[in-house]
């Protein structure tokens, strides 16, 4: 390998230094860079393309289920934010404030949105008159600012991040719950069917739910280093926001009723989970569903075979592009095949086609999978179908590997020592009966920085933890008091 290829490659180890390895993959695969202000990042074209792939899937599903896209100002008057006390208390340490416009001091401080309930709810109130106006389903794609990130990790934790936030109003609590489940299922679907990342569905404990919410549901993804990622959340807000912002409607009998509201969101933390889950010591690994380039064709020639090899390669590229695949023909003269292999591995291209004079003579193509370098040969005439099948195989490989990691890392424990020892040794999720007292979480959190990331859902029959049986103990795994709840402890991003 040349010195140039060494510089191109990843120098840190995923298993030994996951933090440093992750930062190197993000930068060397040209996904993002650090901004001059601490806590912010610059998203590069390849990184933003991944976000757009998620956005395209989710936005289509939202539209199919009655959601309208809107856009609200990024600034929220302080008086609006204060109308919902739980929002104020929950986000106060994280709010960035604008106090001046040019040289003039503003009459009222403006918050840079940490979330948009308090700016959207007043307009939902204005737009809602009758039960015929409901359900109202609004969503915006935007960025928010939360001034709490002290240690920047691109996509996982930054002061500003991209996300979508949905806000809905309903005539009944049943309608609000249906909305919550619909969005949670769509988040599960985008992780599992688009990103090839299996997730657990659950709810947050009472002390960790969204400020002002009745219930916060979540999808959680387990990373290879044993830490959990909160993948997305869907909140039943009950009537607290509707009461605070006067979202009322006339029912069928012309009686005034208070609406029920929900909010739900997924951020580009999903990109962090994608990168961390699949990538390796050679660089980025992407499922074909989101990869900006799904197939790279690398022609290999000597001067006397160059014309034939390139003509053959161009024909295959044309066929694949016509079939709808995202294809790159890497016919650069100034780079040798080895450099190209390393570069496309680093960039996470799922499938590489190698074409030399032997492939031309035999009317074949050599196919190499990015995740494991599995190599096979396909006939030229059937290359479109072969590529389609191989991309499906690559997706399945990535999902199955992540699923195995999840299934092997949900364990039970029934004492503080067991909880601490299991998380300390294995990471992953530790499942234990819980009395419901936040103080029991603090016992674990203080000693090992692990917390309750979720509890099993009681409704909808959604997946919660694979086939792991519910613990048969009825005593809290921390304090020993009677327990009728289950908690999943884990370290988290």
Helix and strand arrangement:
Elements: H1 3-8, H2 18-28, E1 32-34, E2 41-43, H3 45-64, E3 68-69, E4 75-77, H4 78-81, H5 85-91, E5 96-101, E6 104-112, H6 117-127, E7 136-145, E8 160-170, H7 173-194, E9 200-203, E10 215-222, E11 228-238, H8 240-245, E12 248-250, E13 256-258, E14 260-267, H9 269-278, E15 295-299, H10 306-322, E16 327-329, H11 337-346, E17 351-355, H12 357-362, E18 364-369, E19 375-379, H13 383-407, E20 410-412, H14 416-426, E21 429-434, H15 438-448, E22 451-456, E23 485-490
Parallel strand pairs: 3-7, 15-16, 15-17, 20-21
Antiparallel strand pairs: 1-2, 4-6, 5-6, 7-8, 8-14, 9-10, 9-22, 10-11, 11-14, 12-13, 17-18, 18-19, 21-23, 22-23
Dominant shape: globular
Give the total of beta strands: 23
Strand order of the largest sheet: 3-7-8-14-11-10-9-22-23-21-20
Instruction: Tell me the major beta sheet.
Output: 11 strands, mixed
Classify the fold: give the CATH topology of the largest domain: BirA Bifunctional Protein, domain 2
> What is the CATH first-level class name of the largest domain?
Alpha Beta
Sequence stretches where pLDDT stays below 50 over 5 or more residues: 1-6, 460-469
Q: What is the average per-residue confidence, as pLDDT, rounded to a whole number?
A: 94
Specify the number of helices: 15
* CATH H level, superfamily name of the largest domain: Bira Bifunctional Protein, Domain 2
Q: Using the 3D structure, state the CATH architecture of the largest domain.
A: 2-Layer Sandwich
């Amino acid at each position: 390998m040349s010195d140039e290829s060494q510089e191109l490659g990843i120098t840190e180890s995923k298993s030994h230094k996951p933090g440093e390895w992750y930062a190197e993959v993000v930068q060397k695969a040209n996904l993002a860079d650090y901004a001059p202000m601490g806590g912010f990042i610059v998203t590069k074209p390849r990184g933003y393309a991944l976000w757009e792939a998620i956005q395209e899937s989710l936005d289509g599903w939202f539209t199919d289920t009655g959601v309208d896209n809107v856009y609200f100002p990024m600034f929220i008057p302080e008086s609006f934010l204060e109308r919902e006390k739980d929002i104020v208390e929950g986000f106060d340490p994280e709010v960035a404030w604008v106090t001046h416009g040019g040289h003039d001091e503003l009459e009222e401080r403006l918050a840079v949105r940490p979330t948009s309930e308090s700016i959207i709810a007043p307009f939902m109130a204005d737009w809602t008159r009758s039960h015929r106006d409901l359900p109202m389903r609004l969503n915006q794609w935007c960025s928010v600012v939360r001034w709490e990130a002290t240690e920047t990790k691109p996509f996982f934790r930054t002061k500003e991040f991209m996300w979508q936030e949905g806000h809905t109003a309903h005539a009944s609590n049943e309608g609000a719950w249906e909305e919550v489940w619909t969005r949670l299922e769509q988040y599960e679907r985008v992780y599992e069917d688009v990103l090839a990342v299996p997730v657990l569905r659950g709810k947050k404990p009472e002390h960790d739910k969204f400020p002002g919410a009745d219930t916060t549901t979540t999808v959680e993804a387990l990373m290879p280093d044993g830490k959990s990622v909160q993948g997305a959340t869907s909140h039943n807000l009950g009537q607290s926001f509707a009461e605070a912002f006067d979202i009322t409607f006339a029912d069928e009998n012309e009686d005034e009723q208070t609406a029920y509201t929900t909010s739900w969101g997924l951020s580009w933390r999903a990109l962090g989970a994608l990168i961390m889950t699949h990538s390796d010591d050679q660089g980025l690994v992407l499922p074909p569903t989101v990869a900006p380039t799904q197939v790279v064709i690398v022609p290999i020639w000597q001067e006397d075979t160059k014309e034939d090899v390139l003509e053959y390669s161009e024909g295959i590229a044309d066929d694949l592009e016509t079939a709808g695949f995202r294809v790159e023909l890497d016919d650069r003269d100034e780079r040798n095949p080895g450099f190209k292999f390393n570069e496309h591995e680093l960039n996470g291209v799922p499938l590489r086609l190698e074409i030399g004079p032997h492939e031309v003579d035999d009317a074949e193509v050599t196919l190499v999978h990015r995740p494991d370098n599995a190599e096979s040969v396909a006939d030229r005439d059937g290359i479109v179908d072969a590529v389609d099948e191989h991309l499906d195989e690559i997706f399945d490989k990535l999902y199955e590997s992540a699923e195995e990691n999840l299934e092997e890392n949900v364990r039970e424990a029934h004492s503080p020592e067991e909880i601490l020892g299991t998380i300390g040794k294995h990471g992953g999720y530790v499942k234990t009966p819980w009395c419901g007292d936040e103080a029991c979480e603090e016992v674990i959190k203080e000693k090992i920085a692990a917390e309750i990331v979720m509890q099993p859902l009681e409704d909808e029959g959604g997946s919660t933890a694979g086939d792991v049986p519910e613990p048969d103990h009825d005593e809290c795994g921390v304090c020993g008091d009677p327990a009728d709840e289950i908690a999943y402890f884990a370290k988290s991003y």
